[in-house]
Amino acid sequence: MQKTPVVTIIGSINMDLITTCSRIPEQGETIIGERFETAPGGKGANQAIAAARLGADVNFIGRTGEDYIGRELFAYLEESRIAGLYVKTVPGVSTGTASILLTNDDNRIIVAAGANAYVTPDYIDQHLDILKQSDVVLMAFEIPPETIIHTAQKCREYELPLIINPAPALNMPEELWEMADYITPNEKEAAQLFTAAEEKIQQKLITTLGAKGAQWREGDLIKSHPGFNSRVQDTTGAGDTFNGAFAMMTAKGKSIEEAVAFANAAASISVEKMGAQTGMPAYEEVQKKMMNVR
């Protein structure tokens, strides 16, 4: 019987504050929105739930504030099949939020870190035994840069495969990219961070292309896997679904091509519902979608 893959995700926990509108307002302008709702989010929590729903044993390390939002988000994480939930509150600090404007099948997002800023190197060191259990470690950029670098160093020390999702795009030391096994930017992040990157870094990139799928390099070849057709409702969380799925498949020892194909299918399902986490699929849903296009 195949061992269940263990994916450790270190990252943010946010409440998404979602406003749907017909267009983005101009500077100084007020417009009437069409709908408002809240939904659990944060790139770390999104990726953890995506990987867990797809069948991985997920360890998630993060922090919330000591407020009603934090309590609500923690309860939701408890219900989300996450095998190991390592989340502590930060007294006197708000839980992270993401203000999202949805318009014309697109989104614009403003993140306020709150308690996510307290996912520190010392906090990671409190969970090294958990880190060591991992088949794969995944991090995005909604936690402090020093924590990302510190965790990458620990992954190298313990010989743990590391996936870096550089979102939102931040200029980081070359050392970080060298310690990653895979780097998963979208098109804009890739253009901002890696246009002039050394060849050894280019070889680590798995670049997501939205509806067009994803591409990567093998030697001198640029390889790609196309996207899947979707009836788009909300693109928020599609990249996180891709990353959670890619991490799960990598932890299972699958090839890049197999992992990317599966992650593309998972992401294409996630955009068909509102909210980052509510649309994330189960393993069987992804398999069915992949079978239907063969």
From TrEMBL:
Keywords of this entry: ATP-binding, Carbohydrate metabolism, Cytoplasm, Kinase, Magnesium, Metal-binding, Nucleotide-binding, Potassium, Transferase
Binding site for K(+): 234, 236, 270, 273, 275
SUPFAM superfamilies in the record: Ribokinase-like (SSF53613)
Cell compartments where the protein resides: Cytoplasm
Domain Carbohydrate kinase PfkB stretches: 7-281
Binding annotation for ATP: 186, 208-213, 239-240, 264
Chief site of localization: cytoplasm
Protein EC: 2.7.1.15
Keyword Magnesium attached: yes
Cofactor(s), names only, from the UniProt record: Mg(2+)
Quaternary context: Homodimer.
Role: Catalyzes the phosphorylation of ribose at O-5 in a reaction requiring ATP and magnesium. The resulting D-ribose-5-phosphate can then be used either for sythesis of nucleotides, histidine, and tryptophan, or as a component of the pentose phosphate pathway.
Record-stated family: Belongs to the carbohydrate kinase PfkB family. Ribokinase subfamily. Belongs to the carbohydrate kinase pfkB family.
Protein name as annotated: Ribokinase
Source organism of this protein record: Sinobaca qinghaiensis
Lineage of the organism: Bacteria, Bacillati, Bacillota, Bacilli, Bacillales
Gene: rbsK
